[in-house]
Amino acid sequence: MEGKEMNCRICNTTTKKFLDLGRQPIANNFLNEDQFDSEYFYRLEVFFCPECYTIQIGDCPDKEKIFNKNYAFFTSTSNYMIQHFKKLADDIKNNYLYEEGFIVEIGSNDGTFLKNFRGYKHLGIEPSGSVNAVANKRGVRSWNRFFNEEVSENIIDKIGQADVIVTTNCFPHMVDRDSVLKGIKKLLKPKGIWINEEAALKSIMNRVSYDQFYNEHIFFSSIASFKNVMKLYGLGLHNIEYLPVHGGSMRFFSFHKEYAYENEKLSSFLKMENLNKFERFQEFGEKVECSRKRLLEYLFSLKEEIVGYGATAKSTTILNYCKIGNSLISKIYDTTPIKQNKLSPGMHIPIVSYDTFKKDKPKNVVLFAWNHAKEIYEKEKDANTNWIMPI
Ligand SMILES: [Zn+2]
């Protein structure tokens, strides 16, 4: 694939394209038939920066089009994630936050994580009105806005600097990364820690899970790129932790640069990572094309009804890239009420309530929520299902 030009949003270097996932709708924009005419599409291409090694998507829709009152992802719909956040909260209480300390979560969603800190000085920042309202109802103090340098200054004025800043699966969403990082740098107390969790790029590469690329995920960080970007903002990467959630996640621990010595684990991971070469990503692009061919060949070979499980944002990328419509997958079961009885973005496959799944007993099921496979296989173990991995 020829490398098309686009400048890195962080260091302004000319980037190189390694993946073209075609025309895509907004991944979480489940809609009704009367909204087809106004459905928004963009071209989903993914680029590598040869200078800071950041991976980023090109053209992307305005953030106001995505994180608005209709935003449909609620953290607390997954029991597994509730447990995951409880554990992170315990780690923070034991290691980083004293009783009078102040914790800020950016992208706090419905307060699933911060509700563990209701007895502490805490603040959530959440741009989506729908989920922010749920957080406040639960007794989690949360401001409904996008985080940036100005909001950081407002927090310092009204409450003070933070001992702990947490971002889980939201830092990659924030297109104005420059302002966000300046804001984090200011908000963090001199010895404060920033804990950021996001999809592990290495896992995406190994698993060829190209469905992680969609309009909400603008940036992807290898360890090497995260370290480079921290340096540009007077911060320093201190440690990392690999987590098995969401198909493989990475937790990055950063301090102000004066306090951020690189620990041994980080150094050895950096040596092994090998994600600083464009050729690695070119190979990945070729594997994605093979993945599409393999999936389509298999689905066409079945000649029986096929349904989907989990109308995830990730499924939007796969369905639109592979051009799979309701002639191939008749419906998708989902537990989220806001998505039910609507149509999937772009390919317009009907979304039906999960409640009928057990009664319908569908045979061939594409597992779009593959990152929760273990939990789902356990839940559906009585059904005689032919589970199909879409990637
Ligand atoms: Zn760059």
Summarize the structure.
Helix content is 31%, strand content 23%.
What does this structure look like?
- The protein has 391 residues and is α/β, with parallel strands linked by helices.
- The chain has two domains: 75-279, Rossmann fold, CATH 3.40.50; 304-388, Rossmann fold.
- It is built from twelve helices and 16 strands.
- The chain has helices at residues 63-66, 79-95, 129-137, 149-158, 177-187, 201-207, 223-232, 264-273, 278-302, 313-321, 357-360, 373-379; strands spanning 16-25, 41-48, 55-57, 102-106, 121-125, 142-143, 162-168, 188-199, 219-220, 235-243, 249-256, 306-309, 332-334, 351-353, 364-367, 386-388.
- The strands form three sheets. A seven-stranded mixed beta sheet has the order 6-5-4-7-8-11-10. A five-stranded parallel beta sheet has the order 14-13-12-15-16, with no helix packed on it.
- The longest helix has 25 residues, at 278-302.
- The chain binds zinc ion.
- Residues 8, 10-11, 13, 49, 51-52, 54 line the site of zinc ion.
Radius of gyration: 21 Å
* CATH fold title of the largest domain: Rossmann fold
Overall body shape: globular
Strand order of the largest sheet: 6-5-4-7-8-11-10
User: What's the pLDDT, averaged over the residues?
Assistant: 92
Search tags:
binds zinc ion, seven-stranded mixed beta sheet, five-stranded parallel beta sheet, Rossmann fold, alpha/beta, globular, single chain, 391 residues
